[in-house]
Amino acid sequence: MSQKILIVGAGFAGVWGALGAARVLDEAGVTKRDVEVTLISPKPELQIRPRMYESEPHTMTAPLLPLLDAIGVKFFEGTVHGISVDDKTVNVVSADGRTHTLAYDRLLLTSGSKLNRPPIPGLAELAFSVDCVEDAVKLDQHLDTLAKLPDSPARNTVAVVGCGFTGIEVATELPKRLREKFGANAAIRVVAIGAQDTIGPDLGPNPRPFVAQAFESLGIEAVLGSGVVSVDAQGVRTQSGKHIAAMTVIWAGGMRASTLTSQLASQLDALGRVEVAADLRVPAAPDVFVAGDVARVPTDDDGHYALMSCQHAILMGKFGGHNVAADLLGTPTLPYRQPFYATCIDLGDWGAIYSEGWDRQIRLTHAEGKTRKQMINTKWIYPPAPNRVEALAAGNPQASFG
């Protein structure tokens, strides 16, 4: 009977985790009869989540079955609802509603994160988001519906709640998207609302002036220092009592790790992530490895931790896939390290800013930054072609530093 590696989640960490595991097994000459790798996800696609703020979100997916077939990884269509580390099984509900119990010898959890939606009155019922393809498409369809209504200030106003990375990219892309739908002469109003006193509170001092420039250039208003306390059919109300009339409210209030992490460890960080060892192993469950948005792990020896980003998830996935297979075969695992860090923020028609290092030293701005961002969004974060040799090479964690 073959040994089994299960990978839960087909986000960036899961897809590159499958590549990493398949590569180790291929190099060791291990066949599918000996070790079976299965990727579990609700759909056989990678949602290109960092692009959901753009227009045409329904196109922001990459098919996975040809790639998985090329590297000899099985796909199980379903959603994992339970993990038993004692029995070494996962419970999966398939698309037809049936429950399945799948056994594993090694498990790689890459179930990612979801938008944090606190219990603000009206938020769940009335606010839109760009958390996934389905949410982004729903927003796009809403804007199409508004375009058929008479011109009015409320119709033309969008309130974006959250001034972090996602909120900034959504807000700066909206003027172009709204004019494409409502007409070039529409009196567009985009309002970015943040609970803290600065735009992009986590960005640091170097990128922030460029974001402010972009906001001014694009006519985006910033309402800062007062969070949203309610959402209604007419707009949003802030903690200060200000009501902003808007027929569209977009929530961009931060991320939280998949709740599956609570089944692996009792102690989680503030984002719901599991603290893992250097090789991404869960200390309390040595047959389980974790990568991507569900893992809290240092990227270097200087005290920096991986962020919930595709940049960290892709490389962490390669390490996780390598290690889950290597551990099963009894060969040494690799400590995850990712010392290089870069940030690229899209700022709509203004351009983009690209920085390097944790202190975010600005390298490219405006059109040059936009070119870099488009390269990232359309090339670098997509899976490799379904060519076995190229795909397995893409799973090598150590080559990423070359």
From TrEMBL:
It comes from Caballeronia insecticola. It holds the Pfam family Pyr_redox_2. Residues 4-317 form the FAD/NAD(P)-binding domain. InterPro entries: FAD/NAD-bd_sf, FAD/NAD-binding_dom, NADH-Q_oxidoreductase. Keywords: FAD, Flavoprotein, Oxidoreductase, Plasmid. This is FAD-dependent pyridine nucleotide-disulfide oxidoreductase. Its cofactor is FAD. GO terms for molecular function: NAD(P)H dehydrogenase (quinone) activity. One of its GO terms (biological process) is aerobic electron transport chain. Belongs to the NADH dehydrogenase family. The keyword Oxidoreductase applies. The keyword Oxidoreductase applies.
